User: Fold Oxidoreductase domain-containing protein from marine sediment metagenome.
Amino acid sequence: HGSDGTLVFDQENMNELWAHQAGQPGFVRHLTGPDQPDFAAFCPGAGHNFGFNEQKVIECRDLMRAIDCQGPATPDFAQGLEIERVIHAMAVSDGRAVTMKEFQG
Assistant:
């Protein structure tokens, strides 16, 4: 939840992202589809299941490419730290507004 809107993601429905823009009625449902990176290799149409197993195949491929020096490892440590800062901000935001500036190193 933020001042500009809200995003809702549920790992039981990994193929959906719900977005609400402040000042607009309701949520908009966004489905994964072949225009997202790596999705088309598993399914040519939007809205079909893309689950945990497919995600692990992609992660293993990316890790093997990085080990073989064919590309960067992602997320790297710097990206992981930013992710942890967001998670920490979410954890302490219960009952009060926070800004990411509070969590910069």
